[in-house]
Amino acid sequence: MNISDIARMAGVSKGTVSRVINDSPEGVSEETRKRIKKMIEDVGYIPNRVAGSITHARTGTIGIIIPDIQNFFFPQVVKGIEDCARIHGYTVFLGNSESDIKNEERYLRTFIEKRVDGIVLNTCGEITDKKLLNSLGVSRIPIVLMDRKSESFPNVPGIYVDNRSAACEGVGYLLRSGLKRIAYLGGNDQLYTSRERYRGYVMALEKAGVPVEPDLVLHGDYSIASGIEMINRLSSRLGGDRRDFCRVGYDGDRCDQGTAGTKYSCAGGYSGIGF
User: Fold this and answer.
1) What are the φ and ψ backbone dihedral angles of 144, each rounded to 5 degrees?
2) Which one of 3.40.50.2300, 2.60.40.10, 3.40.30.10, 3.90.230.10 gives the CATH number of domain 163-259?
């Protein structure tokens, strides 16, 4: 979909459509202006804001969207993408959605407008804006999902960790070590990765004939504050049993922020495995 298509559908010239897009005050009646704007909105067309500044089909740019730049996992991943992009002559644009789907959608629109050559997306949820999804399809910009699958992009390729098997293996290790009472501290259960890790946790317990204790299953998000809150809640529930499965998405030092001042220190108070 381009400006010529909009002009043909509206029965006007490309210049008229251009004036509407650029909010030019002259040469277009209010009725025609409203009709063209509604048509642009209905088809999900996003104007190419960089068309006048490029002479080639490619812009040499790649857009990356991550949910939390403070999570130690993502800077390492972004560095790997940027290193590879640089070798091939590409510049990287980074968007930090802060786990807000509206921010994610805003970055996607910006990347479409900038006509990036590709998008790497670690989604923070399901996109509900159907017009945006249509715009992504029309733009034909390649998208690769990273770490998290999304029902919004059912046919988009992605690179994933086998979270279910990894969680199952980790819990299995704790069970083989003789631990019986194992808690699960998980992220947002609306996310694919969190659901898969929880399934792996349950799978390992079922294989060992150990029942899932609902009181020892806690969900939060991937922030330090959430990890602290979950660990504090867990510490009050465990009583004298200091054995758990810790998956708050941070390393041991940050996990210790939640256990400082309690007997459940990550350093030695309980057995823990984290992602």
Assistant:
1) -125, 125
2) 3.40.50.2300
